[in-house]
Amino acid sequence: MLLKFYSMKKKALLIIFFLFSITLTSQEKNLISDLDELKLNIGEVYKPNTYSVDNQGKKYDCERVIYYNKKGTFSSANAIEFDRNEGTLKGIEPGYHEVVAICYSSGTSSRRSFNVTVNYPKAKSINILTGSNTIYNNTYIPLSYEITDEMGVTRDIDYWKSDNAERYFSNLEFSITSDNNKLDIDESNNVLAVKQGSSTINIVFDGVKSSKNIIIKKNPVVNIDLKLENSEKFKTGDVLNFNAIPYDKKGNIIKDINIDFSFKGKSFDKSNSASGLILQDGRFVGDVAGKYIISASFGNVSKSKVVNVFERNIKREVKNIGTGLVNDKHTSDFWVFEGVDKRDYAVTGTWGADGTAYFWDVTNPSNIKKIDSVQVDARTVNDVKVSPNGKICIISREGASNRKNGIIIIDVTNPYDVQIIKEYTKNLTGGVHNLFIDEKHVYALSAGQKYYILNIEDPKNPVEVGMFEVGKNGQSIHDVWVENGIAYSSNWRDGVYLVDVGNGIAGGSPSNPVAFGNYTYDSGANHATFPFKSKSTGKFYAVMGDEIFPNGVNPYGTNETAGFLHFVDFSDVKNPIEIARYELPGHGSHNYWIDDDILYVGMYTGGVRIIDISGDLLGDLYKQGREIGYILTGSADGYIPNDTMVWGAQLYKGHVFYSDFNTGIGVAKVSEVKPDSSMQNQYID
């Protein structure tokens, strides 16, 4: 039976479970282990001593203990192997790794993560690289190294990159010397060529010696012509393009010279400091209004240009104009759509509750009406989507009592009287966290590992036609979004995968999905991706969002959230470049929407944020004053009162709709006027 109506007995069981959870919380134990800062060699086997301690210091041995190698959010790795029968771990890949230990004792469990280092094998040989065929006096030499270890593995290590330098040089013997005074080597092992002639660099690393002879030539640059390509009035967040051309003493342009760009500045606001970002291709952006000096240099030759950067001044008033309150359970995702009758409707899911999805009439945004609901066998209806023609709604299921989960297909041609027409569970029994409808196909996640593609031309008889997975050990997926025949899957530690499912760029189709692009970043927290082609520049981005709960999810109180949005330039799909970020200090990102070069993002505890992303993008968009406005959505009548927790945002017919974990669905409007500051207090009487 698709509909599940809870009896009083089941409600009583839920209450008992809730009280039992409170009891367990009051008896929480701390996990202790000698895994903390453990160092292993490759192939070394170690059996940790792990136990738990309660608040009174009483020790509890683990009746059962589980270890796993975590990499990113909800992803695992195999850099350390575990034998659960023996309770041992084995170092496999060198580097710094996170190991999670879970201890089960006396009916409770405790967990903790530990930093474990697998040592790099001893170096066998080293090849010194200078990064340039020609070295000139008064310039730094960007040294890097090819290190071949005793196991025959060769790694390229750039000493000027701190992440690599820390791994290889911090705890091992490392020194650089030269055979004469033509090189100046400082205490941080930076090497400056100071005189013309020949010199030999000698290094000692992990007991292995290596040398390289270099020829230092006279710096041919006598002048640099520094030009600013764009010359309008600059505002914070605008990207300035500088072009530096080096000349020799005869006035000839010198090619193959890497000019070094730098800047310094002074804020117009005396209580603030200037900040910004400059790249070595000459692009500069100022975060704070002020006067900036941009310099281009090579060796001891330099040229500067002064620019003024003014406030972006785009703040606008954002007002909440309507709410569809849900305060007896948590709200999850939502979707706003135009019905076949041309009126406007929305559907919302629920989280950790009773499997209910609500339908709303939002034609009048200031008077949102709850018009129908369905209740299915699930604890969480995490995702809800509606077909572009407004006829079919599909909701996801997690936590079904029969463990079948899957998706539910609903006829919404009459949103006032929706009808369930199909339950589909094949290959989806592990739970569907997210889904997407693209014309006649639905893309449904399966057990957080892959997604299946179903043809729903006949919604009463869905047909599986394809499947996509990354194909790596420990793979995981959180989200899939489809646009213009390309599926963008967000795969936590494995980043975003661009998959041709009908675009034609890689010969793919729904029945033959073909991956053709990928980008990852260090945190491993890629939870959502939204494709974005800039209306103002034509550049194509994948905006990749984090989802991070540093202390886990707390359903009963305020959550701590973290993470931000990564703007990755995919104009060259083979060489994507992360170029900008939107990070709201103290708050983490979740779901978002982009329209007409404006970003609408649910920042969980930070509310709904609206950001100008027009023009070239570079650096920290929040610092640059690109935020147009925001609203906090907590309510005194909320499931958790006065606790803002925005799940996501969607621009629809000029209104900003959102769902809030604690209050349901709401809608806001961005006005043309600036925020009213008449009530702003400068002090307290």
What is the helix content? under 10%
Annotated CATH architecture of the largest domain: 7 Propeller
Strand line-up of the largest beta sheet: 46-47-48-49-53
Stretches where pLDDT is under 50 for at least 5 consecutive residues are: 1-26
Q: What is the average of the pLDDT values?
A: 91
CATH class of the largest domain: Mainly Beta
Number of strands: 57
Distance between the ends: 63 Å
CATH superfamily of the largest domain: YVTN repeat-like/Quinoprotein amine dehydrogenase
What is the overall silhouette? Answer: globular
What is the strand content? over 45%
Number of domains: 4
The number of helical elements comes to 2
Looking at this protein, list some descriptive labels.
685 residues; mainly beta; Immunoglobulin-like; 4 domains; 4-stranded mixed beta sheet; 2 helices; 47% strand
What does this structure look like?
The protein is mainly β. The protein has four domains: 28-118, Immunoglobulin-like (Sandwich), CATH 2.60.40.10; 123-217, Immunoglobulin-like, CATH 2.60.40; 223-310, Immunoglobulins (Immunoglobulin-like); 318-670, 7 Propeller (Methylamine Dehydrogenase, Chain H). 4% of the residues lie in helices and 47% in strands. It contains two helices and 57 strands. The strands form 15 sheets. The protein has a five-stranded mixed β-sheet, with no helix packed on it. The protein has a four-stranded mixed β-sheet with strand order 2-10-9-6, with no helix packed on it. Strands 12-20-19-16 form a four-stranded mixed β-sheet, with no helix packed on it. Strand 36 and strand 37 form a beta hairpin. It is globular. Residues 1-26 have low confidence and may be disordered.
